[in-house]
Specification:
mainly alpha; 9 helices; globular
Length: about 170
């Protein structure tokens, strides 16, 4: 996952100033969008990494073959995040680019949920809500345009009930 995070940065093209233009002026909306999508993808992969680590911390050293296959499929999805990020950041107004990015990230989320189910450490609610929020960007993209569709992903901040419970416990302590 560290390699996937590193590869994200390679998808960002450095701006090249035109004659008489400063480097700061060369930063256009696409470059800034690519940096923003890098940040989003970076934190998504980092979150996947933390959750993946938490999952494996309590598992036995020998794992059932279906679990191992799910793990490799999950890792393959993570490896595709840099490609999907670059594709979408270079084509923010293209619906196909939005679909590629959304399907890759939602696919990784679904695979990780299946892994938790296989390990008997997950609930159905958690495994369904996040992918649904991610995939909702596709119909929203059709309605308002692919560039603005990821704004629905702000709902992800509300979807993790365990985070809200932890914050509530910290405040009362």
């Amino acid at each position: 996952m560290a390699v996937a995070i590193t590869l994200l940065a390679l998808g960002i093209e450095a701006p090249t100033p035109k004659p008489g233009e400063s480097l700061l002026q060369a930063f256009d909306a696409q470059t800034l969008g690519a940096i923003g999508l890098f940040a989003l993808s970076f934190f998504l992969i980092a979150r996947f990494w933390l959750v993946h680590h938490r999952l494996f911390a309590g598992l036995p050293s020998t794992l059932a073959p279906p679990f191992v296959i799910l793990n490799f499929a999950f890792l393959a999805a993570i490896c595709l995040v840099p490609f999907a990020t670059t594709t979408y950041s270079r084509n923010p107004d293209d619906m196909t680019a939005l679909v590629i990015y959304t399907v890759v990230v939602a696919g990784a989320t679904i695979l990780l949920s299946f892994m938790f189910r296989q390990s008997a450490t997950s609930t159905t609610r958690r495994g369904v809500i996040v992918p649904l929020i991610l995939l909702s960007a596709i119909p929203v993209g059709l309605l308002v345009g692919p560039r603005y569709a990821p704004l629905v992903w702000i709902l992800l901040l509300l979807a993790d009930g365990s985070r809200a419970a932890r914050l509530s416990r910290r405040r009362s302590a």
